[in-house]
């Protein structure tokens, strides 16, 4: 399937879902836009300052997760040797192009902004809110990805320098292996959509697609296994963070309900 067709179908299906049984806002377009901009800035700042407010238990959990992920480094090359193929291309005209395209940043940004713009201009709270959360998750996770990549400077697997080739303070693409940006994007998008729809099938579908994106990056020799694990953790973490912040603010939440015409997405208070 052509990657552009895949992205277009995903976008149309999402708009069709969010258009059903939604709430309409009484605020003006400018009021909603200014309010949403403030929320994005607030959540971005609070995400990266949150560690300063961690309890000792939360720091212990965080250290355990980070420490555990570092234990993957010694097996990275072995996994690459077993499942990675001899290519330096992200897209190879095969099945893996589909999940790879799902994690391409410009596509994800276009989808998120289009969803937000649709909700903003038709004054639909549900669509606008979902679009904003998608934008937030991409922005927050993207900031973390770029910072860690620059600091780590890990060379990509296809250069065959081994799993310990960290040079640090590098901005060129060849040294942008750790963490995986495609995987982070896929999990950031999937987490917001899955948790907003809040059903078993939504979680199964979206998280499965994100997992396939991670697998594609290893199969296509673009990333080591630990790269995609870190990307998945960052994407999932930011997605859950913005969704939980929205729930804490007392907003409504999407739910999936069957009806005689199929399935509709509604909101509960």
Query: Terminal Cα separation, in Å?
Result: 39 Å
Number of strands: 2
Helices and strands, in order, run as: HHHHHHHHHHEE
**Gyration radius from CA atoms, angstroms:** 19 Å
The CATH topology name reads: Vanadium-containing Chloroperoxidase, domain 1
Question: Can you walk me through this structure?
Answer:
The protein has 269 residues and is mostly helical. It has one domain: Vanadium-containing Chloroperoxidase, domain 1. 65% of the residues lie in helices and 5% in strands. The chain contains 10 helices and 2 strands, in the order ααααααααααββ. The protein has helices at 3-18, 29-49, 56-70, 73-83, 97-102, 105-121, 125-152, 181-197, 200-219, 225-248, and strands spanning 253-259, 262-268. The protein has a two-stranded antiparallel ribbon. α7 (125-152) packs antiparallel against α8. The longest helix has 28 residues, at 125-152. It starts with a helix and ends with a strand. The model is unreliable at 12-21, 251-258 and 262-269 (pLDDT under 50).
Question: Which descriptors would you attach to this protein?
Answer:
single chain, 269 residues, mainly alpha, Vanadium-containing Chloroperoxidase, domain 1, 10 helices, disordered C terminus
Which helices and strands, and how do they pair?
Layout lengths: L2 H16 L10 H21 L6 H15 L2 H11 L13 H6 L2 H17 L3 H28 L28 H17 L2 H20 L5 H24 L4 E7 L2 E7 L1
Antiparallel strand pairs: 1-2
């Amino acid at each position: 399937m052509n990657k552009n067709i895949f992205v277009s179908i995903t976008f149309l299906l999402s708009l069709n879902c969010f258009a059903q049984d939604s709430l309409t806002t009484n605020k003006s377009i400018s009021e909603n836009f200014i309010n949403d901009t403030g929320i994005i800035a607030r959540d971005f700042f609070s995400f990266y300052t949150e560690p300063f407010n961690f309890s000792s238990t939360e720091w212990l959990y965080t250290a355990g997760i980070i420490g555990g992920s570092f234990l993957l480094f010694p097996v990275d090359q072995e996994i690459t040797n077993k499942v990675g193929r001899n290519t330096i291309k992200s897209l190879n005209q095969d099945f893996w192009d589909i999940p790879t395209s799902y994690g391409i940043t410009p596509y994800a940004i276009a989808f998120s902004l289009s969803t937000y713009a649709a909700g903003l201009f038709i004054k639909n709270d549900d669509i606008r809110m979902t679009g904003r959360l998608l934008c937030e998750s991409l922005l927050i996770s993207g900031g973390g990805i770029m910072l860690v990549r620059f600091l780590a400077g890990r060379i990509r697997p296809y250069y065959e320098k081994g799993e310990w080739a960290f040079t640090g303070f590098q901005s060129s693409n060849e040294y942008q292996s750790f963490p995986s940006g495609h995987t982070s994007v896929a999990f950031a998008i999937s987490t917001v959509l899955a948790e907003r729809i809040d059903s078993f099938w939504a979680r199964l579908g979206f998280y499965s697609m994100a997992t396939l994106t991670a697998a594609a990056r290893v199969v296509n020799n673009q990333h080591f296994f630990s790269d995609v694990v870190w990307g998945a953790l960052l994407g999932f973490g930011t997605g859950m963070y913005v969704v939980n912040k929205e729930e804490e603010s007392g907003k409504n939440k999407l739910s999936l309900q069957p009806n005689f015409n199929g399935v509709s997405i509604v909101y509960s208070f």
